[in-house]
């Protein structure tokens, strides 16, 4: 009976599809496994239909290539793949991306949707639950915008603070990035929308992204970027993986047998499908045989490689029919597993609860902002603390900045500032209409708050001198395709230094995609890193500054003091002509971020994990146990200050025995909310891979016998206690076959 009703509803849902099915076919039985259902459909498909399912179209106009949007695609979207209506297989309607539902540029009207703060901000919350609810929120907007695939789940490690896409990703540590992005993926997919982790792999800079070869030793890749993907995939079971533009050790990521066949599908037993990035395909048989399952938006490639050329390759035997079946099976299996057939999508923007979604975006912005410095407890700014406040710079009277490129979400109410930045992709520069100035004024009615745009330094300095406190907004726009300099643009360093000299009670609020250099740091009293704070960024910033909510973000990346201290003081390839292939030798290997600083015994400007709040925490009672190979750390954290606040208590592991890329690795954390004098017992189980190194000879993770240090603390440079545990040598078992 229940099954009968189910078929009825599926058929009703499919009713609008051309050629609705007369009898209920077996593959529509949701009680069957995705595997079985995919096999049943495969039996029915013609070769043409199979080829259709592995070939993607762009979902928007592309005038440079005389491409007009497919009528069936959602207007101004990233991608479209035809379905097989006669069998009830829906098309794939694909949208970008990680912060919310984006719109492509060549579109008469932008889709106005809710934007989370940047991926780096969400990572800075260290709150997996928030990554999940943010994912569920944007997933539901994707669904109500008519999409069943969200190209979200970006997690390229931040090897390079100048990477223009750092804002889309989740920082420099494989465990943090893997957990946070895995949770985002779970959230999106909870709405029956497929997520795709990207860009696989080692697409860690935008400079030369189409021609660079990211060169790295296998063990080092397995312990860094690849581990981040592996963890996110295990946790989130993303329906797809997007292979990247760049080459890895010489071979393009989308035709890289080692990356796709051997690591992803072989060692990790990944059973979903691999889609290409837009313009990342360079061959037919080579790509298909190396593990690429679907060519996305073929108009971006120099010519289509699947479609007709794939048919020729099949006819000539260059690609086997078994391989084509495998490509299709992977796609179908994902579609069934994520319920795309039972939960068809349609455009229902009216169903979107924008107020509720903005509240989710706001709490993510509040939990992700990081208080970097707070001399003399200048923050929070309480009502009596100042009679006059100068708010300076970065259009703080109008809104908050967002990052550019394919992930750009266009705000409800339109752009707060028009005509900024490049006219074409990755522009324009978009400010969301949520003004921090207004949000402060509403809350501090008795305080005189003056705004200055920061253009004329002299008059800004005068206003600063005449005010009790200055809140200076500084920004750096970053975007896909462009790497940035680590220096704030538009002479903002000069403005900040001059203002701070006039009034040291200056609070700098940074709206940046990633780390920036701060030559003026000693001259200002406070710095709040707000990243790109999303739809409700203005409210979030005001609430943090005024202490309505305590800052609880912690850095997911190290902030450098200078560029010279980085593994690559000059960005690889930056000096070369645009299309000239080059190699980025990742000689730092797995020593990314804090691991690099630790292994060089250097101190960054602000370490990974750093972040202040309006109280302090003590760590006591560390105990470490090892049971059946699982290491567990238990300890107590107590709020020893006068205000309530959240601590992110972290566990690091170290091994003196050699073979490790760095003295310590993040091995776990808990975010806890404590009232004054409140305490919590924290227990963290350590993933054994974090105690191991990748062994090429054993082709697995190897734990060496010996003593390991378990460290607890607030940041990579603030370890509060250390204990030791002795482990036996062992090779870790292979992971189970994916679902
Ligand atoms: C980006 C992807 C994006 C795709 C579709 C590419 O340029 O690298 O992240 O999903 O475009 O817009």
Can you walk me through this structure?
The protein has 739 residues and is α/β, with parallel strands linked by helices. Helix content is 25%, strand content 21%. The protein contains 18 helices and 29 strands. The strands form 7 sheets. Strands 1-2-3-4-5-7-10 form a 7-stranded mixed sheet. A 6-stranded mixed sheet has the order 11-18-17-16-12-15, with helices on both faces. Helix 5 runs antiparallel to helix 13 and helix 6 runs parallel beside helix 8 (225-236). The two termini are 28 Å apart. Mean pLDDT is 95; it is low at 1-19. The protein binds beta-D-glucopyranose. Residues 78, 96-97, 151, 198, 277-278, 406 line the site of beta-D-glucopyranose (BGC). Beta-D-glucopyranose binds next to loops.
Concise structural overview:
The protein is an alpha/beta fold and 739 residues long. Helix 2 (34-44) crosses helix 12 (321-337) and helix 15 (457-465) packs parallel to helix 16.
Descriptive key words:
739 residues; alpha/beta; 7-stranded mixed beta sheet; 6-stranded mixed beta sheet; 18 helices; 21% strand; globular; disordered N terminus; binds beta-D-glucopyranose
**Total DSSP helices:** 18
**Count of DSSP strands:** 29
Separation of termini? 28 Å
Strand content: 15-25%
Q: What does the main sheet amount to?
A: 7 strands, mixed
Whole-number mean pLDDT: 95
The whole-angstrom Rg is: 26 Å
Q: Are there runs of 5+ residues with pLDDT below 50, and where? A: 1-19
Secondary-structure-derived class: alpha/beta
Topology:
Blueprint: H1 2-14, H2 34-44, H3 47-53, E1 57-59, E2 77-81, E3 92-95, H4 119-124, H5 128-144, E4 149-150, H6 174-189, E5 194-200, E6 212-215, H7 218-222, H8 225-236, E7 240-243, E8 247-248, E9 251-252, H9 257-267, E10 273-276, H10 285-290, H11 308-316, H12 321-337, H13 354-368, E11 370-374, E12 388-392, E13 400-401, E14 431-432, H14 436-443, E15 448-452, H15 457-465, E16 469-476, H16 492-502, E17 506-512, E18 526-529, H17 537-545, E19 582-585, H18 594-599, E20 617-627, E21 630-639, E22 645-655, E23 665-674, E24 679-686, E25 693-695, E26 700-703, E27 706-715, E28 718-727, E29 730-731
Parallel strand pairs: 3-4, 4-5, 5-7, 6-8, 6-19, 7-10, 12-15, 12-16, 16-17, 17-18
Antiparallel strand pairs: 1-2, 2-3, 8-9, 11-18, 13-14, 20-21, 21-24, 22-23, 22-27, 25-26, 26-29, 27-28
Helix pairs in contact: 2-12, 5-6, 5-13, 6-8, 13-17, 14-17, 15-16
Beta-D-glucopyranose is lined by residues 78, 96-97, 151, 198, 277-278, 406.
């Amino acid at each position: 009976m229940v099954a009968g009703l189910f078929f009825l509803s599926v058929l009703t849902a499919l009713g609008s599809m051309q050629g609705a099915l007369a009898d209920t076919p077996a593959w529509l039985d949701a009680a069957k496994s995705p595997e079985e259902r995919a096999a049943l459909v495969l039996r029915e498909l013609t070769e043409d239909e199979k080829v259709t399912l592995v070939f993607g179209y762009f979902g928007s106009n592309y005038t440079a290539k005389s491409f007009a949007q497919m009528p069936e695609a959602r207007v101004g979207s990233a991608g479209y793949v035809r379905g097989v209506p006669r069998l009830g297989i829906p098309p794939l309607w694909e949208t970008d991306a990680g912060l919310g539902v984006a719109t492509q540029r060549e579109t008469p009207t932008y889709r106005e949707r809710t934007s989370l703060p940047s991926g780096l901000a969400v990572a800075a919350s260290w709150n997996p639950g928030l990554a999940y609810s943010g994912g569920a929120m944007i997933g539901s907007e994707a669904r109500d915008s008519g999409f069943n695939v969200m190209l979200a789940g970006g997690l390229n490690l931040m090897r390079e603070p100048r990477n223009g896409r750092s804002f889309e990703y989740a920082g420099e540590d494989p465990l943090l990035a893997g957990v946070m992005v895995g949770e985002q993926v779970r959230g999106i997919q909870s709405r029956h929308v497929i997520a795709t982790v990207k860009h696989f792999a080692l697409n860690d800079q935008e400079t030369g992204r189409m021609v660079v070869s990211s060169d790295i030793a296998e063990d080092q890749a397995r312990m860094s970027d690849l581990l981040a993907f592996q963890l996110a995939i295990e946790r989130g079971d993303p329906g797809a993986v997007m292979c990247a533009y760049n080459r890895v050790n010489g071979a393009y990521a989308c035709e890289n047998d080692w990356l796709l066949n051997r690591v992803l599908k072989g060692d990790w037993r990944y059973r979903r499908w691999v889609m290409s990035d837009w313009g990342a395909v360079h061959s037919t048989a080579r790509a298909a045989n190396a593990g690429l399952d679907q060519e996305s938006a073929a108009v971006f490639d120099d010519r289509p490689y699947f479609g007709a050329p794939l048919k020729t390759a099949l006819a000539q035997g260059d690609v086997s029919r078994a391989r084509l079946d495998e490509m299709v099976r992977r796609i179908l299996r994902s579609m069934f597993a994520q319920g795309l057939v039972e939960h068809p999508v349609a455009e229902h923007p009216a169903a979107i609860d924008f107020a509720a979604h903005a509240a989710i975006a706001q709490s993510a912005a509040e939990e992700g902002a990081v208080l970097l410095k707070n001399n003399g407890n200048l923050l929070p700014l309480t009502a009596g603390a100042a009679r006059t406040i100068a708010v300076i710079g970065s259009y703080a009277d109008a809104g908050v900045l967002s990052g550019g490129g394919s992930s750009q979400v266009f705000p409800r109410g339109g752009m707060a500032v028009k005509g900024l930045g490049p006219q074409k992709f990755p522009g324009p520069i978009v400010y969301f209409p949520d003004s921090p100035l207004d949000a402060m004024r509403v809350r501090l009615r008795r305080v005189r708050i003056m705004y200055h745009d920061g253009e004329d330094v002299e008059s800004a300095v005068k206003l600063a001198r005449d005010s009790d406190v200055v809140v200076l907004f500084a920004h750096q726009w970053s975007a896909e395709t462009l790497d940035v300099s680590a220096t704030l643009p538009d002479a903002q360093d000069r403005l900040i230094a001059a203002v701070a000299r006039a009034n040291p009670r200056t609070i700098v609020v940074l709206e940046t995609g990633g780390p920036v250099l701060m030559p003026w740091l000693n001259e200002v009293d406070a710095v709040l890193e707000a990243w790109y704070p999303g739809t409700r960024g203005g409210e979030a910033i005001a609430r943090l500054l005024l202490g309505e909510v305590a800052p609880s973000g912690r850095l997911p990346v190290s902030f450098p003091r200078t560029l010279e201290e980085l593994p690559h003081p000059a960005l690889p390839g930056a000096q070369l002509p645009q299309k000239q292939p080059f190699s980025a030798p990742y000689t730092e290997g797995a020593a990314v971020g804090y691991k690099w600083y630790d292994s060089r015994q250097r101190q960054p400007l602000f370490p990974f994990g750093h972040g202040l709040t309006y109280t302090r925490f003590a760590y006591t009672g560390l105990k470490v146990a090892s049971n059946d190979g699982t290491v567990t750390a238990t300890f107590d954290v107590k709020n020893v200050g006068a205000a309530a606040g959240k601590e992110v208590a972290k566990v690091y592991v170290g091994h003196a025995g050699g073979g490790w890329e760095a003295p310590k690795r993040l091995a776990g954390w808990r975010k806890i909310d404590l009232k004054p004098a409140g305490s919590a017992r924290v227990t963290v189980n350590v993933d054994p891979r974090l105690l191991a190194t990748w062994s090429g000879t054993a082709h697995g993770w190897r734990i060496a016998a010996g003593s390991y240090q378990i460290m607890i603390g607030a940041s990579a440079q603030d370890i509060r206690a250390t204990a030791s545990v002795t482990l036996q040598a062992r090779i870790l078992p292979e992971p189970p076959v994916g679902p």
